[in-house]
Predict the structure of PotD/PotF family extracellular solute-binding protein.
Amino acid sequence: MKSLVRVFLSIFIISFSLMGVAAWLNSSQGYSGGNTLTVYNWGDYIDPELLERFQKETGITVIYQTFDSNEAMLTKIEQGGTSFDVAVPSEYALAKMKQEHLLLPLDHSKLPNLKHVDAHFLNLSFDPNNEYSVPYFWGTVGIVFNPELTKGIDFHSWDGLWNPKLRNNLLLVDGAREIMGMSLNSLHYSLNDTNKAHLQQALAKLEKLAPNVKAVVGDEIKMLLANEEAAAGVVWSGDASEIMDQNDKLDYIVPNEGSNLWFDNMVIPKTATHVDAAHKFINFMMQPDVAAQNAEFVGYSTPNKDGKKLLPADISGDERFYPPSEITDKLEVYDNLGKRMLAQYNELFLQFKMHLK
C-alpha cells in the first residue's frame, strides 16, 4: 500500500512540475499574462512592421492568427477554444456576432483616435454608434479587365460580362453573396434581395453567363488575372489593387447599376482575456500614420480620413478605389440575411457552379 502511495505521489509531483515548466514556457513566449494580445485577422491583411512597432511601443506581445473566411472565423469564435482579443469580421458577420452575443461593447474613452475616422464610415446600419466595432478597411466589388483583350466591351454595366467576346475568358471570385449580388444588381435588384422569384431570375441569368466563365476560384484569382490567364474577373477592390500592381495593363471598374460596399471591422470577442490591450491595439491602428502605412502595404482603402491625407497622391486620388459620391451612393452594404436565407443564397450559387461542369 505504501509503495502504491509513493507511486501516486511521484506521478503527482512529476505532473505538477511539468505543468509549471509549460506555464513558464508559455509565459516566456508571451502566450499568457497581461502583456499579451491575440489578434485574429485575414491573411496578408496587416503590415508586419506595424505589429513589431506596437510591441516595441507598448511592451505587449502580439500573437497573430489568420482565417480565410468569415464563416471559419465565426465557427472558431463560437467554439470558444481560443480566447481571441481582437478579430476583424466583415459587416454581415459582425451583425451575426452581435445577434449571438459574441462581442464586448467598446469603451470609446480608450479610443481617442476614433476622431481620425471619416464620419461617412461611422454609425452605419450594421453597428449603430459603433458600439461594438471600428472600421479597419473598406472597398467595393467590381470588374478587373484587360483593355487589350476586351476591346468593344463596355464594363460600365454588369451586362458587359455576358458579352460573347468573353467566352471562356472570365474568372469569378468564389463567393455566394458577391456573385449572386452581382447578378441581382445587373437586374436592377438589391444585392440583399430576398424575393424568391428575383433570386431565381438571378440564377437563370448566371446560368446564361456560364459559357463565358473559365473558373470560379479563390485567392489564386489574383495570380491568374495578373498573368493574363483570363481577360476579366469579378473581384474585391483590394485584390484588384494588388493585381494591377503586378500588371499595370489592367484596369478596375464598379458598374453603374451598383455593387457591394464592404467593411472589415475591428471588434473584441466576448471571450477576450486582455480587453485593455485590445483597446490599445485598436486605438494604435487608428493613428493616421499607422493607418496610412497599413493601407499602402495591404492595398485596400482606409476609412481613416487623416491617414488618407498621408498617402501618396496617386493612391488617395485614385477614384477606382476612393470613388466619388455618385458611385458610392449606389453601393449597398451586405445585410445579415439570417441562416435560412443565407443558406438559400449558397444553394443557388452551388447550383450555378454545378451548371458550369
